[in-house]
Amino acid sequence: MNTILNKITKINFVLCLIAISMLSLSPSESVPQVGGYDKIVHFLSYLILSMSFWLGFQKAKPVWLVLILLIMFGVLIEILQSFVPGRLMSLMDAIANGLGILVGYCFCVFIIQFKIGASK
Questions:
Q1: How far apart are CA 28 and CA 25, in angstroms?
Q2: pLDDT tens column, 85-100
Q3: I want to staple 39 with a disulfide (CB 3.0 to 4.6 A). Which of 51, 89, 96, 119 is the partner?
Q4: Which of 62, 74, 60, 80 is nearest to 103 (CA)?
Q5: Are 94 and 78 in contact (CB under 8 A)?
Q6: Is this structure's pTM higher than 0.70?
């Protein structure tokens, strides 16, 4: 991957972290309401976060440590929400966050393997 694209994907990951943090830790009245789609929004947000990480840091090792750190970020955000007015800590949200991270990682691995297989 060329260096400019690599830098852009790394910046994208940082921007995803910032956006998730800001939206998750803002009082509930200042964040758009998503109704019954809350878990889907959590899942997709963390799927995008995970994919942006793996696209920007493909050589990050060990993989299991990175996955644990990203999952811990999702859990930490849920814990911190309990201190934000109008927000609650939710185990189901933390599970949706973690599933998004794992599916995002698996999707990136699949895409990378597909790309490698196609180039042979």
A1: 9
A2: 988 999 999 999 999 9
A3: 96
A4: 74
A5: yes
A6: yes
